[in-house]
Amino acid sequence: QVHLVESGGGLVQPGGSLTLSCAAYGFTYSNYAMSWFRQAPGPERDLVATITTTGRDTHLADSVKGRFTISRDNAKNTVYLQMNSLKPEDTAVYYCNAYSVITDSNYWGRGTQVTVSS
Fold first, then answer.
1. pLDDT average, residue stretch 7-33
2. What is the pLDDT of residue 41?
3. What is the chain's mean pLDDT, rounded?
4. Can you tell me the mean pLDDT for 25-37?
5. How far is CA 16 from CA 43, 74, 86, in A?
6. What is the mean pLDDT of residues 55-81?
């Protein structure tokens, strides 16, 4: 059974740091590009960062470039999002996503809340 389990969210002051983790179960993790999305109150879920299957290439949204880093460990079936210099506008529920271009399969985690506030 497929599961993506996010962890590491919480409350942090502006300027602080958090590291999110997403552990994958039930599918061939190394065949999937992994992404982090976030959703503030409202209908839109925005792409934050993507990493390719091997980890060689990454993409970051302009709003987080220079502050966030995405990485993956294929031996541990886990993807990470290192978030530094956090701002109140980073407050959102952060979701892990796995996508395979080979099978067109798309999986989501349940999300973890990140709140940036003093």
1. 96
2. 86
3. 96
4. 95
5. 27, 28, 5
6. 97
SS in 3 state form for the chain? CCEEEEECCEEECCCCCEEEEEEEECCCHHHCEEEEEEECCCCCCEEEEEECCCCCCEEECCCCCCCEEEEEECCCCEEEEEECCCCHHHCEEEEEEEEECCCCEEEECCCEEEEECC
Residue 98: per-residue pLDDT? 98
Q: Which residues face 47 on adjacent strands?
A: 37
- Residue in this structure with the two tokens 């792409």, named with its chain if needed: 47
Which residues lie below 8 Å from residue 88, measured CB to CB, with a gap of 6+?
Answer: 14, 116, 117
Residue at 80: amino acid letter: Y
